[in-house]
């Protein structure tokens, strides 16, 4: 299926392997910096830290009040920056979640029919003052972690949130430029004032900034990195978004993030979209001065077609990866079904292709930090290198850490794992409803298989992937032979399915990769979704002709997973995905031609590793 960005295969990765302007750590560590076991030690008194509240001028007037919006930041820095004149680097976390949040009900997801069903012919034919405080009180743990080690910590409030002025635009340029303004001020390129209106200068810093944060707080570093802003030396995005389209949409379908860290249980985020999130982070202003901004989010996000458009393009950072001039330490959970794994993977693919200095840490948790002393020490070494210039080797050791199910980590030079190659598994079947097969040999079966969508009435995880030996009217299942040895998947799986929707002009399509154990267990590995109306383009929906077969291709969420020996690789094809897609009434009839359908998996060792 054509996508709005080039698919990054091996050839394109090679073609894009250009030398970019790589960031460099500070030339040498300052003479006053004390190291212990290779990292900066806690040498300054946190209780004596200087704290300030500052309002930084941004270059935008998002609330149209005739004055550029001011961004509130709170900062903490060693007292020695004032008493001894030490210049220090900055650890910066920007956030829309500091306080003053509001609420807006999620959109309904139970519909009589999919909203794109009625596109029909229309779609077919058109197209505070400086002060010293005893006992520092900045919220969170960043200040008490980093200030004793010689860093300043800045906690910012994103534009249009809490005490910052303006209106939030959820991922777009006002938000990005508001973040950039803080870095510019830290580098002497901007203006700021205290609460009394007195000008404030950041004359205590080297200007070297490292951003860190998780979820939305990790997305803001991705955003500002694409501006190439001078002084930003490194970012550490944890569980961060690289494309808002891929957060709220999937290949043309309106989909939801999941509220559970592992994707299990009822999904409290079903029906969330940019307007709901905007109302939450903007608080009461979204019912007043920022009401037009909220209305614009609602109107332009398009929950009818799910198509890619200028709204989503303005919230996509993947296409701007070539502007990144900072090192990047990507951290993500392989079982994160809120900010799904495509967010880190597509970002990583582009950073790799562009030669950006980078590191990747994948853990088996969900929407969370990996935790553990090994990760904490690695992060410490990373900041020390890029912000203080400590020659600790962190930038030359293996780039990737991938956690396995037993808690151990595999350290490698690249991701996907070295030796990962695409393997094509053909679908096979002997009857219209019986469970089918996956094989490295091409299927010769002429049978067409069919199933009926149960819509809102059945949960994919709990029911439809179970009992693979039994035919089920609401799903199709295909399995490989039992594996003779463990098999590692590393990368992005895809499906190419020849399918027809027999009685509608639209449908949800869901593909689920499953690990079937010899004891009858079924574990969902990953999944992916498609609106077949977007089979040719994400920009335009084209209604289906009922009964006509189409060659449909879509990606599943990237993963790094080991199938144990004796287990089987399974593919389950369903229509509506209860926790993620819109949920129509049941009754959509679908068919699939196994002989013209393929599951493509990135397997370490290629086809030979499968043993069948």
As a percent range, the share of helical residues equals 10-25%
Shape: globular
Q: Point out poorly predicted stretches.
A: 5-22, 121-135
Tally of discrete structural domains: 2
Strand content: 25-35%
- Cα-atom radius of gyration: 25 Å
CATH class of the largest domain: Alpha Beta
Structural class: alpha+beta
DSSP helical segment count: 13
From the 3D structure, determine the CATH topology of the largest domain: Rossmann fold
Outline of the structure:
The protein has 612 residues and is of the alpha+beta class.
Question: Could you describe the 3D structure shown?
Answer:
- By secondary structure, the chain is an alpha+beta fold.
- It has two domains: 10-108 and 131-412, Alpha/Beta hydrolase fold, catalytic domain (Rossmann fold, 3-Layer(aba) Sandwich), CATH 3.40.50; 420-609, Sandwich (Jelly Rolls), CATH 2.60.120.
- Helices cover 17% and strands 27% of the residues.
- It is built from 13 helices and 28 strands.
